[in-house]
Structure formats: C-alpha cells, structure tokens
Write a structure and sequence with these properties.
alpha/beta, Rossmann fold, seven-stranded mixed beta sheet, two-stranded antiparallel sheet, globular
C-alpha cells in the first residue's frame, strides 16, 4: 500500500509522530520552534532510516558516544534531515510553507497532525496559574487552520489538554470548530486517557479529529486495552544510580518483562541510554526520604507536614503535594519535571533521588533507543526533561494512528 504522508506541526520531541511512523505513515515535514527538540527529531529520523536500511549499528555507536551527532547525520540523506523545520508557527508561516512546498514537489498532503502548546489552556499546575491577557498561544489553532487551508489534507489530528474545552467558557473550542468547518471539515473530539492505551500514567488529553466532509470516515473507536501495568513494570530492570550521575550508556540491571517487550520499550539494544539523574541538595534529599517513608505507611507527605526548618515553601495551603513519590499506581507526567524533580521522587530510598531522564521517558512510553537531544547553551538533561514532559505518549499515538490507517485504506 502507498504510504500515507503527513505534516507534523508543533512537533516537540516527536511523540505523536513516533506513533504514526510505527503504523507506516511517512512524515513529509516536522515543524518545531524549540531548537533542542529539532535535533531530537532529526536524530529519530536518522534512526528510522538506518533501521530501514539495516544499519542500526551506526545509530547504536552514536548512542554510546562513539561518533558525534554530525557524524550520525552524515550517514543519512540530507534531504531527510532538512525536513525538520526550526521555525515559529504564526510568525514564520510563509517561510514554512515555502520549505514544505519544496519537500512535497507537487505531491498532496494526506494528513496534518500536531498539538499547539497547551499551557494557555491548562487549568491545573504546580502553582496558581496567571494567564497572560491576549496570550498568543490561545490563537495558535488559527495558524493550524491556515495549514489545513493551504494543504487540504484528508484528515487531521489535533491534540491538546482538556482545558481547551473550558477556557474562556469554551470560546476557543467553539471558534476552532466553526473555523475548521468553514474550511470543509467535520470536527469531533474525545477525551482520552493514555492509561487506556498501555501508557503507565493517568494523563487525559483531548484528541480532535477532523476529516473532509465528502470522505467516508468517522471518529475512530478506541477501546481501552484489558491488560494493566504499573510502576515496577517500567523501573525494575534499570540499574541503581545516584543523584547527578551522567553516564551516557550503561547495562541493564535485569531481564526484560512482558510490558517492556510487548510495547517495544526494550526494543533490541542491550544497553540503556540517558539513565541520568539531576543532582539534589541535602535538604531536598531529607524531604525525599520523609516522603518515601510516609508513602510506605500508605500516605502522601503533605507540604504542611514537613518540619518548618526543612520546608522550602512558605505556602502551606495550596498544592500540598509539592513533594510526591512515584507510586505503584500510574503517576501523571507533567511539564514541570523540567524545573525540578520534587513531583517525581524515585520510590527506592537507597537511591534517594528524583527519577532519571530514561525513567521519565518510559513513563511516557518512549522506547529506550529514543534519544533526547540538547543544545550547547542549554543543560542537556533539562532539555530532555522538558521535551518528555510536553510530549504525546508514542504508545497512545500509535493506537490512534492504527485506527485512522484502517479507515484511509478501506
């Protein structure tokens, strides 16, 4: 069958795109403003190309640090690397259009996928949110629509937080639906929980799907999986590490298990990358120990229960779960992990740290060979955490992509 191509807008690290690639879709272009995320996208494109040509060993050499990033990119067609466009949607639309038009060379676009930054619609957070007036991010759906208008894909997938339905009393979603309908699309949404798709976290997202009015299509029926998995299924085989450890690659500490194998998280390599943890001061570590001990009794440590001489936050009435251990039950990944690890304390008091980059990636269902890039001027670990926290879980994206493929190939 002919591969279905797509443009990925607001790509981030490419979690949504990863799911579509797994189902045989072909990216025509990725558009992302964050420079580090663009390198992550390029590196993943290199992986998929080398895997297809049975040259994975080159990619594994890069993961181990034996070759540089530039040397990796030299091993794949440059036209592929250049399909990642580092530009800002809204400000650089004409530049982006010209780039994409060159890549397409007259071919039509089958799909557009992507989710504009969601912080402007969020209704929860680690601290009381103070939304900007006239926040330009609330209007990014308009620019998404301009790509729909220009390329007229058969189908689009638009991902965002549940708050997009309620922000400004639902004004943004109503306007989005009206605009996209004027462009010729039937528009529907569902509230989906990533845990229902095998991702080990309770993470709700609005998935809006639109299709051309004359297309024989309907919103995919996505049934929750029956098997349920938990924290230990993703942590158990990883080696113990200390706060601040930065070894690039290391051996696994145990065998794989059903969850990791079935969902292609441990997918062929015999070492784990980016199992690195941020450093912590002694006071934070003391609080972490308290939080773990409290959880062992079946209770969460509240901020107002921390001894006053140890407490780092004077506010003891809002956000009492400032320090939170990753429990056996699904633990939701949030973007704040890029700021600190207090909400993601590792449950092993012998390690006494927040979770590593790789553990965070596994919570989001990224495979172990997925490498999160940084840039020279930004701490690589921070860049990785930011990309992971903002990502769409690939496992969830894969299930959505599979159902859409069924319709498009009927």
């Amino acid at each position: 069958m002919k591969a279905i191509n797509y443009i990925d807008l607001f790509s981030g690290a490419g979690g949504l795109s990863e799911g579509f690639v797994r189902q045989g879709f072909k990216p025509a272009a990725h558009v992302e403003y964050d420079k580090a995320a663009c390198f992550t996208l390029k590196t993943r494109l290199a992986y998929h190309y080398l895997q297809k040509t049975r040259n994975e060993s080159i990619y594994y050499s890069y993961l181990k640090g034996d070759i540089t990033r530039n040397e990796l990119y030299e091993k794949v067609p440059q036209r592929l690397i250049h399909t990642v466009i580092n530009a800002e949607i809204g400000k650089d639309n004409e530049y982006i259009f010209n780039k994409i038009d060159n890549f397409l060379a007259g071919k039509k676009v089958d799909m557009i996928i992507g989710g504009p930054p969601c912080q402007a619609y969020s209704v929860v957070g680690r601290a009381p949110l103070k939304h900007k007036k006239n926040d330009v991010r609330t209007k990014l759906y308009i620019h998404y629509g301009r790509f729909l208008k220009k390329y007229q894909p058969k189908v689009f997938v638009f991902e965002n937080v549940p708050g997009i339905l309620s922000a400004e009393n639902g004004k943004y979603y109503r306007n989005l639906k009206k605009y996209y309908r004027r462009l010729g699309y039937v528009v529907e949404y569902k509230l989906l929980n990533s845990y229902d798709f095998g991702v080990i976290q309770n993470r709700q997202r609005i998935i809006i799907v639109g299709w051309q009015k004359d297309l024989h299509f309907r919103y995919p029926e996505l049934k929750p999986i029956k098997d349920k998995y938990f924290r230990d299924d993703i942590f158990k085989d990883l080696p113990s590490i200390n706060p601040g450890e930065t070894m690039r690659a290391r051996e696994y500490a145990g065998e794989t298990n059903t969850y990791l194998s079935k969902n292609a998280i441990r997918n062929g390599i015999d070492f784990v990358t980016q199992h690195i943890a941020r450093p912590h001061n002694e006071n934070d570590l003391a609080i972490y120990k308290l939080a773990i001990q409290q959880l062992e009794t079946g209770k969460r440590l509240r901020n107002d229960q921390i001894p006053e001489y140890m407490r780092t936050q004077n506010n003891t009435t809002d956000f009492l779960d400032r320090f939170k251990v990753v429990d056996k039950e699904p633990h939701t990944m949030i973007a704040h992990i890029a700021k600190d690890g207090h909400h993601f304390i590792h449950p092993d008091k012998n390690q006494l740290r927040s979770i590593s980059v790789r553990e965070a990636a596994r919570i989001q269902s990224f495979p172990d060979d997925f490498y999160f890039e940084g840039v020279i001027e930004l701490q690589p670990r921070t860049a990785a955490f930011r990309q992971i926290g903002n990502a769409v879980p690939p496992l969830m994206a894969e299930k959505i992509a599979g159902k859409i493929k069924e319709f498009l190939h009927e």
